[in-house]
Design brief:
alpha/beta; Rossmann fold; 3 helices; elongated
Amino acid sequence: MNRRLLGRASRPRLGWLAALVLCGAGCLFHDAPPPRYFAPPSALATADDPPDGAVAVRPVRLRRVRAASYLGQQIAWRVSDVEHGLYEQRRWTEFPTRYVERVMAQALDHTAGVRRVVSGRVATLDLELVSFDEVLAPTHEAAVQILAALRAADQTAIFERAFSARRPIADDDPAAAARALGAALDDVVEQIASQVAADAPIATPAATHPRS
């Protein structure tokens, strides 16, 4: 009997405590600043296309880009090779994989000797974004690393290696970090495009369909 009365008496107290916690959480989230969105700029969009017919064409199909699991729309930071984190209020306007896919396509289109195609028995380029981070220590810089694998039409490996670049971040403004990451990404995809131009096999135009 006493236990039953005690249980009934404790219910209002538990309900009051739950309401207090929810109220405090509501105040906390209400006071939090809204997210800020950033986009890493690329200089490749304004680059000139190489002259047609200058060298033999090496057709390549760019496949979907993958990324490390922590690289999403929240901007990532790190202070060492073993400690990563995500900013709560800093977001990318798109997932980083979309930036990589778009800038890689632009780099291939602007590389002499390479022709990006959408189908056909041609070499395929697979990319995995390993890091796209604002490095806070020991040096404040942007770090981008992409694992690129080029395979022939029969899936024979041509090359598989990591390409990386770093750029200093001028100050603590998040926009400066976004600009540095954009520059580092341009550098990495240009390295990959140059490797593709050197190693991709030459194929007949009849075996390919042009890029869309």
